[in-house]
């Protein structure tokens, strides 16, 4: 059985795709005005907004009511016939970012039996960052009784020879175009192409070859376990799907487990070398803290300096003040790891938000009792080799692009 394969994909028809497609639920988590604007724009139209749980609302006391509404709306959409099902298919996605860059992905499913998000995992599919286990149960509550999944998960392959997805791009004009529209909130453009059966088989074979043991060991010069797919975005969503599948499969026979739809998670597969992919650092904003106090503690915890001695640079900002420090001789490879280590050991129960975009950090840090930490980027070409050799990166290390460039929901699958 293939790790990545075709899927039975649901696409809404006879609906306004601009109102249907909204940004990933884990974006704009400190900007309620964004989600208010989306809700106003969507109005009463069919929309993926009605079948997702924006994470800004996770702790506002409305979870039970929201989950019930989400499940009801999924059933309503299925019963109303707004979806067209493309059976056993792959969809080539063309995303034009706000900057004008174009990126390409392939919609299909991954076998959750080949995924393990636990620390030290050696599965073919692996998390690139540490999974925060406390984040799983609330998300399981959302998914466990859901009829549909509408994912924002992006999986990555390390295909530096462009053997799998790029050949499809060159022949996309021969495929049937199934959607093509501008995304809401000035977030670029989205188009989708139904990949022909012949082209799909070629792409799947090329993806399979990336996981061949002999090829892997030669490429990475290692005898460590093969890593074929890395989770680029949506790590906690995929971990939630895995957890739900583990719960479901306990109730099934061996034969039923082979084909149950919950075993297979819908994802977008991208090549980490795609020219549209930029690894943006995920910054930190700490609330309800005295900025000078935490800065002083950070400088006491590590050997730091104001000049570059080959250390890790971290910029900070708060209420009209900005600066930077270098952390020297840290046991952590990355600056984000050093900062997280300091948080976990020196402070407990900090109120932290994880922010995409330095300008948003600067804006939020103007509030009283708030400090922002702006972190350096990581080279995307180092991702697979780092995960293979060192394991998962520190939590919230990087993001593939800024918030407005994140994946927008479009495709669904019955689970």
Mean pLDDT over the full residue set: 95
DSSP E strands, number: 20
Spatial extent as radius of gyration: 22 Å
- In whole angstroms, the N-to-C terminal distance is 19 Å
Q: What's the number of structural domains?
A: 2
- Indicate the proportion of strand residues: 25-35%
Please estimate the helix content.
25-40%
Quaternary state, please?
single chain
List low-pLDDT spans: none
Detailed description of the structure:
The model has no long low-confidence stretch (mean pLDDT 95). Strands 1, 4, 5, 6, 8, 9, 10, 11 and 12 form a nine-stranded mixed β-sheet that branches. Strand 9 and strand 10 form a beta hairpin. Helices cover 31% and strands 26% of the residues. It has 13 helices and 20 strands. It has 415 residues and is of the alpha+beta class. Helix 4 (136-143) packs across helix 8. It folds into two domains: 4-278 and 401-414, no CATH class; 282-376, no CATH class. It is globular, with a radius of gyration of 22 Å.
How would you concisely characterize the structure shown here?
With 415 residues, the chain is of the alpha+beta class.
Features:
single chain; 415 residues; alpha+beta; seven-stranded antiparallel sheet; 13 helices; 26% strand; globular
Secondary structure: elements and pairs:
Layout: E1 4-5, E2 7-12, H1 17-20, H2 32-42, H3 63-80, E3 83-89, E4 91-96, E5 102-111, E6 125-127, H4 136-143, E7 148-149, E8 154-157, H5 166-170, E9 176-182, E10 189-194, H6 197-210, H7 213-220, E11 229-233, H8 235-249, H9 254-259, E12 264-271, E13 279-287, H10 291-301, E14 303-305, E15 312-318, E16 321-328, H11 335-346, E17 351-356, H12 358-364, E18 370-374, H13 383-390, E19 398-400, E20 413-414
Parallel strand pairs: 6-11, 8-12
Antiparallel strand pairs: 1-5, 2-3, 4-5, 4-10, 5-12, 7-20, 8-11, 9-10, 13-17, 13-18, 13-19, 14-16, 15-16, 15-18
Helix pairs in contact: 4-8
């Amino acid at each position: 059985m293939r790790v990545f394969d075709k899927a039975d994909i649901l696409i809404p028809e006879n609906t306004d795709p601009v109102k249907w497609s909204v940004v990933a639920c884990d974006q704009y988590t400190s900007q309620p005005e964004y989600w208010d604007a989306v809700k106003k724009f969507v109005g009463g139209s069919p929309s993926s907004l009605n079948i997702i749980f924006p994470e800004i609302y996770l702790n506002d006391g409305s979870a039970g009511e929201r989950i019930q509404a989400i499940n009801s709306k999924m059933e309503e959409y299925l019963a109303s016939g707004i979806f067209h099902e493309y059976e056993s298919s792959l969809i080539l996605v063309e995303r034009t970012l706000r900057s004008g860059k174009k990126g390409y992905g392939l919609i299909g499913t991954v076998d959750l039996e080949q995924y393990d998000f636990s620390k030290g995992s050696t599965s073919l599919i692996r998390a690139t960052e540490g999974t925060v286990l406390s984040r799983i149960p609330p998300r399981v509550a959302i998914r466990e009784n859901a009829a549909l999944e509408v994912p924002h998960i992006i999986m990555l392959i390390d295909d530096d020879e462009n053997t799998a997805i790029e050949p499809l791009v060159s022949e996309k004009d021969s495929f049937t175009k199934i959607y093509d529209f501008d995304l809401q909130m000035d977030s670029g453009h989205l188009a989708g192409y139904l990949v022909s059966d012949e082209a799909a088989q070629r792409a799947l074979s090329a993806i399979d070859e990336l996981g061949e043991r002999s090829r892997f060991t030669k490429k990475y010069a290692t005898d460590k376990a093969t890593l074929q797919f890395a989770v680029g975005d949506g790590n906690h969503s995929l971990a939630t799907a895995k957890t739900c599948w583990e719960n479901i499969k306990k109730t099934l026979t061996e034969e039923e487990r082979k084909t149950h739809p919950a075993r297979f998670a819908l994802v977008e597969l991208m090549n980490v070398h795609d020219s549209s992919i930029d690894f943006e650092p995920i910054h930190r904003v700490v609330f309800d803290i005295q900025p000078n106090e935490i800065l002083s503690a950070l400088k006491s915890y590590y050997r730091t300096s104001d000049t570059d001695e080959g250390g890790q640079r971290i910029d900070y900002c708060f209420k009209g003040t900005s600066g930077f420090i270098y952390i020297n001789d840290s046991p952590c490879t990355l600056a984000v790891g050093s900062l997280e280590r300091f948080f976990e050991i020196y402070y407990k129960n900090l109120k932290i938000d994880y922010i995409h975009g330095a300008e948003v950090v600067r804006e939020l840090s103007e509030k009283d009792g708030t400090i922002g930490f702006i972190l350096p980027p990581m080279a995307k070409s180092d991702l697979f080799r780092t995960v293979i050799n060192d394991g998962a990166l520190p939590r919230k290390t990087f993001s593939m692009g800024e918030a407005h460039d994140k994946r927008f929901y479009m495709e669904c699958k019955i689970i």
